[in-house]
Design goal:
Number of helices: 12
Organism: Pantoea leporis
Number of strands: 12
Pfam families: HTH_1 (PF00126), LysR_substrate (PF03466)
Largest sheet: 5 strands, mixed
Keywords: DNA-binding, Transcription, Transcription regulation
Helix content: 40-55%
Strand order of the largest sheet: 4-3-5-12-6
Protein name: LysR family transcriptional regulator
Order of helices and strands: HHHEEHEHEHEHEEHHEHEHEEEH
Family: Belongs to the LysR transcriptional regulatory family.
Structural class: alpha/beta
Length: about 300
């Protein structure tokens, strides 16, 4: 058994296709298939369900994959640690992020850049379940999202809790002058406005929908999008009122918009920056986490 076989196995898990797994492994498909068959022969186990195409892993294969992910993660972490010892902290950090979490991620990355200017980032938008799965399988190095605190404790993640500054309405005052007269906006008032909201699968949207249902009114969602930029632009031209966690957007993006706090109950989940527990987190993730939490609001 060697590390390349385990890398091929984890690549096959991610790609779910022999050809694509071979491509990302920089080998031919016959070579990848042969090396994985050699691994099965050495272990004395059938790891992969084979038909004409890849058909998933056997129960034994799933168990071996758990170890393979750990070993490959440690191996890649060792390589990164050696590189950081020789050249300083550098490389690409993989972040999974739930949309509309209560921190402006680019501002946080810019603050970390002052300490680690050679660090690059690959950012993927994910749901809560996707993010937890990606953290557990080491397909991302860290995550920012809304979590159940009990889940974080059970999974032993390193956690930096994010402040909950509340929720605000963003609107063009020329199109919604009546909202300017209020210091705070009630849910009943909000439900009477045309709204620009994220798609219903997102946690923040589900939280907002639950709060609005308590008013007994059904709001009109005039724009619904997975793109925060589309929602923001819709608010800027006066199509509707955008609802966002305070602190999620950079002030420069909200030019020409007015902002008012919304009277809402706190979220049931906690916003947090998380990485794997000490010893399992990659060196890049640990460096980023230690520096990033210095710049998070108290």
């Amino acid at each position: 058994m060697d590390i390349k076989q385990l890398i091929y196995l984890t690549n096959l898990e991610r790609e779910r296709h022999f050809g694509r797994a071979a491509e990302v492994s920089f080998v031919s498909q016959p070579t990848l298939s042969m090396r994985l068959k050699n691994l099965e022969r050495e272990l004395g186990l059938s790891l992969i369900n084979r038909s004409n195409n890849f058909d998933g892993f056997t129960p034994e294969g799933e168990r071996v994959l758990t170890w393979a992910r750990e070993i490959v993660s440690v191996y890649q972490g060792l390589k990164l640690e050696v590189e950081s010892l020789k050249h300083g902290v550098n490389g690409t950090l993989r972040l999974g992020v739930m949309p509309q979490c209560s921190v402006a991620l680019p501002a946080l990355l810019k603050a970390v850049e002052a300490r680690y200017p050679q660090l690059d980032y690959r950012v993927a938008a994910m749901s809560a379940d996707q993010l937890l799965e990606a953290l557990n399988s080491h397909t991302v190095d860290g995550g920012i999202g809304f979590f159940e605190l009990t889940s974080l404790r059970e999974l032993h993640f390193q956690t930096a809790l994010l402040k909950d500054p509340g929720v605000e309405a963003l609107f063009n005052p020329a199109h919604f002058p009546a909202l300017l007269e209020q210091e705070n906006i009630s849910l009943a008032t909000l439900a009477c406005q045309p709204l620009c909201l994220a798609e219903p699968t997102r946690y923040f949207r589900r939280y907002l929908d639950g709060q609005l249902r308590e008013t007994g009114l059904i709001p009109r969602v005039i724009v619904e999008s997975a793109s925060i930029m589309q929602l923001l632009q819709s608010a800027q031209v006066g199509l509707g009122v955008m609802v966002s966690p305070c602190g999620h957007l950079l002030p420069e993006l909200m030019q020409n918009l007015s902002r008012r706090p919304i009277e809402m109950a706190p979220m049931g989940r906690q916003a947090a920056l998380v990485i794997a527990e000490p010893g399992r987190a990659s060196p890049l993730a640990q460096h980023f986490f230690d520096e990033a939490r210095r710049h998070l609001p108290d």
